[in-house]
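pinging the channel bc i need a second pair of eyes. not urgent but kinda urgent?? the chain im working w is below, pasted from the shared doc
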Amino acid sequence: MLALTAPLVTFLDVGYCTARTMADDYYQILGVPRTASADEIKKAFRKLARQHHPDVNPGDKSAEEKFKRINSAFEVLSDPKKRPLYDEFGEDAEKIGFDEKKATAYRQYRAAQAAGGGGGVGGIPFSTEGVDLGDLFNDIFGRSGSGGHGGGFDVGDLFGRGRGGSRATAAERGDDLTTRVQVSLAEAVSGTERTLSLQRPGRCGKCHGEGHTGKLVTCPTCNGTGRSRRGGAVFGGSGVCPTCRGSGRAPESCTQCGGSGIQEETTRLTVKIPAGVLTGSKVRLAGQGAAGVHGGAPGDLYIETEVAEHPLVRREGDDLYLDLPVTVSEALLGGEVRVPTFQGEVTLKVPPGSQSGRKMRLKGRGVPSLRGGTPGDMYLLLQVKVPEEATEEVRAAAETLARAYRGDVRRELTL
């Protein structure tokens, strides 16, 4: 009897990488460079629109969504007023409705931020004639609520003011991590579990990921003066310290994590590997990646599978192939043979007169579909085996068989 077993597989070492999700870029959607002419953009749009139009792909939701993104990209990049703003601000241009007045105010805001953020509202010197600050920043940053400045938007909160008027460091989402796990073919067919020991950047236990103790101390940048200089020039031309925003006080950094809010940690996770995985398949564990900086949300963990080769069974997609030995009498006269599968043994009827290489199918005995579709099949390739020892009785039977052949079995063999 054939045994469908495989050697014990081992869990590979952990490694991690960053895989941040970015907003769609309209030039990438249309497949054109940022220097593309209007004609090149129109040509690319027409080609993609024909390919992904809902009438060409009835019932295909992914094609429908792709078609919508293609239309959105073309609507912006084909407009001589919208395209320059998109080139300058990216997705923020859409958030402000391609409004030139808001764009002007936003340019001044970004320039002031780059210079150190001194003067004006929140220390930022720019004119907002005809533009409501609350509307502008609600458009760009998606803030809402009551109180503060400008239609429910707290301008002080925009510029990161913490307790005592000091500037709070912005939180950042943690990196996504990836680790590889090897599974046997049998485990890929049936699904399995793995308990992983994972080393990753975790949240600091002392400051709970905030990066500071919550205690206000003398600002280390300006030594409490609220004003600072760099290379002989005042920051932003206003002299306001970029760390404490002029308050002279800043949160005390956590000594355990150095102010990052992150510490290396080792954790154990039990992961379910679904049936049907291939080499390169990824299982996502939301929130199990690296901790976020300064209290930001954690990233995700991706488990990438590697399916080990089986000594007897070959896999092609969701189908499996097995060489099935049969005796001369079973091939000649037919008969029933027991065949092992990953779902249990089955009985196969071998037709009389079967030759080596004949392919027989066991429907649904392959690999389950990872996306919930129809499972694959298992194909059996018959291999006629002669007796290993030629006794007098076997020789006599072989001579009898030889006389049963009608002509030369190799008569059609030509090169």
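so The CA atoms of residues 52 and 62 lie 9 Å apart. and Residues 1-23, 116-128, 143-168, 230-238 have pLDDT under 50 and may be disordered. — does that match what u expected or am i reading it wrong
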